[in-house]
Amino acid sequence: MGYPALIGLRYSFSRQRNRFTALVSLVSMLGMVIGVASLIVVLSVMNGFSGELRGRILALVPHGYLVFDGAEAAADWEALASSVRRDPDVLGVAPYLREKALLGAGRGQRGVQLTGIDTALEGTVSRMPSTLVAGRLDALEEAPFRVVLGATLARMLGVGLGDKVRVTLPRFTATPLGLFPRSRQLEVVGLFRVGAEQDAELAYVSLATARRLLGGSDAPNGLMLRTTDLFEAPAVLDRLVTSLPAGVRAVAWSESQGSLFRAVRMEKFTVSLLLLSVVAVAAFNIVATLVMSVAEKRQDIAVLRSLGADPAAILRLFVIHGVVLACLGVAAGAVLGVTLALSVDRLAAALEGLLQARLFDPAVYFITGLPAELRWSDVGAVVGASLGLGLVATLYPAWRASRVAPAEALRYG
């Protein structure tokens, strides 16, 4: 870049500038620091929330389902399960029966999703057995009409291990007095907790109990699958569906739970745009800084033009001057943002200790801390976007500087 770079750097670090110009320059740099740091921290926290949400919710959600539409499709389900299990991308296959139901205890009632599972195979398709906080999953098989509840659901109903709950199903039993909903007492033999809304919505029974409650055939509603890679599950199911018999359809986790994660991504994108506007305002403060600097350096520009500098050299000079200011603000903001993102959980704990209050009450929220996941791709995107805004902000003042007429500037000072 030659002498324009040297002069541009000298202007950026000169101590002989007008005090007001120096103040405006400092304010614009601080705006860049705050905007960049805020954007990095917020993106890291949202990444942490997304990862926490994914880990908790998908603990009980298989990677995919093979759903049987009709009795004919479910007739030979065991052979289908054996065939799917041989696929190299499938780690586990388990049958299930599922129905909406109403659980009640005392005066409390709660709508739940009642799922009949094979307790020996459930651990191959989900992490449900590892989420138990009381009781045993295999206790479901030791006697009929036993149930495992989410910890939040049990608290809402006021029951614990060994207590009875009444399940009412949307199936009717004919009696001499008319039709009545099918109802049965179930013994609570286990409690699970994942720290998500499933704790208040799910209940598990054995397949044998589910068949007796639902009064249907012995065939399950479908098969639950676990694949080698969560994010490759849709592609694996798309490949499997080509060899499935008629009446069997594949449903990936991205279809059953995808709307929630799409909402999280949309929130992240929206918040990023809002915070990037803060960086844009700070970046365009550089416009004011450079306009004032051009007015202050009119005689210097005239001298340089008189010595042979062309307009392009003057333009590069002030672009470099503005970009240096932007780089300083972005670099300081990136360092501050990365530091805060890496220590946000400790800062939240320190704030709780200072205020003597819980920021995230476990009785209200499913989380007890502030998760954060720093991704260098996000840092790079924030730094790149901020530098781009800073560069755009320098162009107009630099162009105005390149249009200064040397004779007129020397004559009128």
TrEMBL record:
The family note in this entry says:
Belongs to the ABC-4 integral membrane protein family. LolC/E subfamily.
Where does the UniProt annotation locate this protein? Answer: Cell membrane
Query: Under what name is this protein listed?
Result: Lipoprotein releasing system transmembrane protein LolE
- Bilayer topology term: Multi-pass membrane protein
Q: Which residues cross the membrane?
A: 20-46, 269-294, 314-340, 379-399
Q: Does the record bear Membrane in its keywords? A: yes
Transport recorded as keyword: yes
Q: Name one GO biological process term.
A: lipoprotein transport
Domain (ABC3 transporter permease C-terminal) spans 274-405
Q: Which GO terms describe its cellular component?
A: plasma membrane protein complex
Against InterPro entries, the record matches this protein to: ABC3_permease_C (IPR003838), Lipoprotein-release_system (IPR051447), LolCE_TM (IPR011925), MacB_PCD (IPR025857)
PANTHER family, alphabetized: LIPOPROTEIN-RELEASING SYSTEM TRANSMEMBRANE PROTEIN LOLE (PTHR30489)
